[in-house]
Amino acid sequence: MSGGPGCRIGRRALLAAALALPAARTPAAAQAAQDKPLRPAPDPPQRSGPALSIRERGAVGDGRSHPLSERYKSLEAARRVHPHIRSLDQECDWAALQGAVLELARSGQGGTVLVPPGHYRLDGEIVLPNLDRYDDAFNEVEIVGAGMRASLLSWPEDLGPGRFAIRAGSRQGVRDDNKGYQRSRIAHISLRGPKPDNRPGDPPPGMDGLALTSRFLLERVGVFGFRAGVDVWRDHSSLISCQLTKNHIGAYWSAGTDSFGDHLFLDTDLAGNTLASIAVAPENGIDHSSFISCHFGFSPYAILAEDGPAKRTFLSNNKFLDCAFEACGNGWIQGPMAEMYGNVLIGCSGSLLPAYRLAKRPVTGLIVVRALERNEFTGGSASFGDGTNDRAADIETAAIVAASAVGNRFDDAERLIRLGRDGFAPALAISGTCRANRFEALDCSGEFRKVGAGGVDAGNLVQRDYDRVRRLEPDRPADGVALTTTAAGGIVPVATGGTVPVGKTRAAIRMGTVLRPGSGTPQRVDPTPGPAAPVGIAVADAAPGTDSVVMELRLELR
Which residue from 86, 84, 108 is spatially nearest to 96, judged by alpha carbons? Predict the structure, then answer.
């Protein structure tokens, strides 16, 4: 094809133009196009894995014993259906559940084992497949029931120490947890152990409930009747709306693991265990974890550090939000050889109840640790009781007992201080260093300080005595007001700001009077003008016969 200059059209351009035009259709061709069925819609994306009911694998679920010998005449015949069994004496329910787990684990897709409503009797561990950090086999297996009260797995016979009801594949007796990245989910089901009716002081069973590694998710799971309901290893597991009750220990941070922390306990009930809601082995510790709206107590201890020299920090950088340490028999947080660093307790409270007390174990204090450093108690978390609902008179030493306390904050310390004011127990008993422990009470703020020689009385003006305080002496600047009567070596709350009652020397003092240390008794205040620097202003009339005046501290006027 040819034309004038600039009009030459190549073969490729012609071909492209022809392909761009709609193809001409004859009437017959158009009718055929209309009669041609449309292409079917693509299949919906598959789930992460199939679901397999244990009833399909032969589970009975009537709560009674059904050994495999009821169905099979020989071990060989049983193994054609359940290759993992070892004896015809084993339970059908156990064989079905473990078989379903293995079948899904080996499928290359993983999946969900469904546990329909029923009471299933088991006589061996359920072992979940283990996933290491770089696993690409997609063999994650979940176990999901029909409800916490509908689907029950029970172990009437104790499997013994070191054995579990359900465990991750890496949780062997040798405690080799190098591949503990489990990423499994268990939901809407209950596990019952061999001793669900134990009471404080009874010997615990040998076996434990759920043995976790990393990234487990438990949702609405009930665990009761075991030595430890949940044995926590490693990091990033979550327990949501679970019940860990009627065990010896609700949740146990056991020995022999590198726990990286970052666990979440949300709306989980850990009350009603025979020793503690939570216990921590000396080799382990709870780090960077969150406990939100959890219920501790109705047991001897809420959180217990087991006896023995601590190899790690007991509690470190955890958050306790709106948690109840309720009806504890022997104390809330106990670890005389353990350390508690950087934790925050917000909106928490608790009480003591003798019904859950272990015999021959004293109630030394509500919180007993070796070192208490940089912890914050706020928004009700220092609601240590007023001597009625928490049996404060049973406390032998102090509400908080430690060898050292540094940099702690008590932002709602009214009731904590009132324990000492009302004569029940001192707020703190610190045998060693006590420094920078601030408090906020209803009308005042200040610091808990160790008392020097001679002790102090409530309402005394006090002065610094190196790292301690003592009654104010003549010609010395006042540092605050003692809120409780405390002997030498004890810990006294010293108000440094706000409004407090202070001992007076005059019979009557009028509101608005500027007050100074008394000339003869400098630890009390006097309205007489003099050379001493003012320490405050009376905020109410003090009538004759009263021994103190309520004063707004103005120590900055010194």
Answer: 84
